[in-house]
Design brief:
- By secondary structure, this protein is of the alpha/beta class.
- It has 2 domains: 4-157 and 203-303, Ribonuclease Z/Hydroxyacylglutathione hydrolase-like (Metallo-beta-lactamase, Chain A, 4-Layer Sandwich); 160-200, no CATH class.
- Helices cover 27% and strands 27% of the residues.
- The chain is built from 11 helices and 18 strands.
- The protein has helices spanning 42-48, 66-69, 72-81, 94-107, 163-169, 176-180, 195-198, 221-224, 241-246, 252-262, 280-289; strands at 4-10, 24-29, 32-38, 56-60, 88-92, 115-119, 127-130, 134-140, 148-154, 160-161, 185-186, 192-193, 199-200, 207-211, 229-233, 266-270, 293-295, 301-303.
- The strands form 4 sheets. It has a 7-stranded mixed β-sheet with strand order 6-5-4-3-2-1-18. Strands 7-8-9-14-15-16-17 form a 7-stranded mixed β-sheet, covered by helices on one side. It has a two-stranded antiparallel ribbon with strand order 10-13.
- Helix 8 links the parallel strand 14 and strand 15.
- Helix 10 runs parallel beside helix 11.
- The longest helix is centred in the N-terminal third of the chain and has 14 residues, at 94-107.
- The chain is globular, with a radius of gyration of 22 Å.
Amino acid sequence: MEKFDIHILGCGSALPTTRHNATSQVINLRDKLYMIDCGEGTQTQFRRAQLSFSRLNHIFISHLHGDHCFGLIGLISTFGLLGRTATLHVHSFPELEEVMRPQLDFFCDGMPYDVEFHPFSHGCTDIIYEDRSVSVQAFPLSHRVPCCGFVFQEKPTAAHIRREMIDFYGIPFSQIARIKNGEDYVTPEGDVISNSRLTLPAAPPRKYVYCSDTRFNPNNVQYVKGADLLFHEATFAESEVARAAQTFHSTARQAAEMARLSGVKQLLIGHFSARYTDERILLDEAREVFPSTRLAEEGRVFQL
């Protein structure tokens, strides 16, 4: 099965602590890297994760709060110092480019590569990026400022060749690609060998959903539904449910309820408030509702 890993670089919330870094994740899908959010200190965490800077070409920013984007200018500057030449693509709301352009002109003048911004509208529910490996859809969240989540949907892979059947029928190598893409094989004598005899079905495409800062919103089940893995912020414990509503955040129990309603396979919770010195209280609360819950802690890698 192709690689589809989630690297947690930061899982803290707005107030800095010595225990957690600000929010950032990297998706490694078929050895291509995609970053979600870029809080302060992200590039250091990227180094610690032993990920390759050269494989990161797309960054997705969920909203313009500092704990989700203050690390961006430092990362961009470092890429320049390393002699990067490939264009870096940044996907977010239009206001991000307005904020970043003066910083790039001042701090990053003369860089050997370009930074290209790809804005999408507030409330967007469209596919904002796709390549041969993945499509990325944005969807609106309920926060104090415009904020979005992201759906990373893997593109289907080709069927698996049954090597013993290829050998049995003496099928030439030149026909393998066509067979993997669904064609039958016609022998030199004119006999048709059905594709189902020559291949095994590919693994079903996988889906990762990232819910950044948001109040609990059952309307988002339509985007989260059926995910193999859901990341959902869980800033507070249930004892602070009033505070969560006031600040447009979620409790761990609410994150778990979203996972339950959406029928996901696994839940990651993160964006922990600085008030908690032990996040197991959040984990225990979530598991009461959705047992397949794990903590999105720095340095952990989750495989789909």
